[in-house]
Amino acid sequence: MITKRIIPCLDVKDGQTVKGVNFENLRFAGDAVELAKRYSEQGADELVLLDITATNDGRKTMIDIVERVAKNVFIPFAVGGGIRTLDDIRNLLLAGADKVSVNSAAVENPALVEQAAGKFGSQCITVAIDVKKFDGEYFVVTRAGKHKTNLNALEWAKTVERLGAGEILLTSMDADGTQQGFDLRITAEISKNVRIPVIASGGAGANPQHFVDVFEQGCADAALAASIFHFGTLPVPALKKALDDGGVNVRLV
Q: Most buried among 106, 123, 142, 239, by the most CB within 10 A?
């Protein structure tokens, strides 16, 4: 049986971890490096670091934080935010990241995914797909959810798989930060129609059943959360124990 992964996400702004609802009304959750170290020690399977303002502000993801995280954690981690070129990807991998996550740049230049997968290997390339529902249909959104594209979410997922992406990080922007549970419909739709792993993101609350549901009904390979971990409402070890007790195959420390 395949092990399901639990992935804390650190939304980083100016070196600090922040969290809000739909990427707005942000509040600080702690130093990014210290949180990363804590989650590594607690038994998280992977980490995701997202510089949430890098794309909008035209800045590069902070290499120094990546280097410091790499020295303090012993689990794989991905980095996203403001990644637009092969050089950006190379610099992050050299700084210690195991994977990079591209979103807006992949939408604007799909060839980047193919080129990056060819140069660095599909295992290093995660495509982040942020989606919102419009009149019952899911579309891809970019720039922290502020820009609606004409891309159908499922078709875009199939496209990035074909281009060589090794994994999809799927975020429901409607559910993000609400803690009411993952969007099971779009997660299942994409998970069942691509062969690469899908990480479900957006909506996790302090209820282990949210994770059971996204693994069993949403068919996700991994689940990502932020607030419940940062503010201690459902620590990683407690979540993993609950999942194990509920029959979900997870790695226990």
A: 106
Nearest-10 Cα torsion for 162, 52, 24, 29: 120
Q: What is the pLDDT of residues 30-59, one digit of tens each?
A: 688 989 999 999 999 999 998 877 655 545
In terms of C-beta density within 10 A (0-12 exposed, 13-18 middle, 19 or more buried), how is residue 64 classed? exposed
pLDDT (average), residues 136-163: 94
Say yes or no to pLDDT of 67 above 90: yes
Count the helix, strand and coil residues of the chain and give each as a percent rounded to the nearest 5: 40, 30, 35
Ramachandran quadrant class, 43 (left: phi over 0; alpha: psi -120 to 50; beta: rest): left
Give the E-state strand segments of the chain in sequence order.
5-13, 16-21, 24-31, 47-51, 77-80, 99-102, 125-134, 137-142, 147-152, 167-172, 198-201, 222-225
Residue from 59, 4, 16 nearest 224 by CA: 4
Decide: pTM greater than 0.85: yes
Task: Give mean pLDDT, residues 219-232.
Answer: 93
The CA distance from 99 to 76, in Å, is 8
The architecture that CATH gives domain 5-245 is Alpha-Beta Barrel (3.20)
Where in the sequence numbering do the catalytic residues fall?
Answer: 11, 130
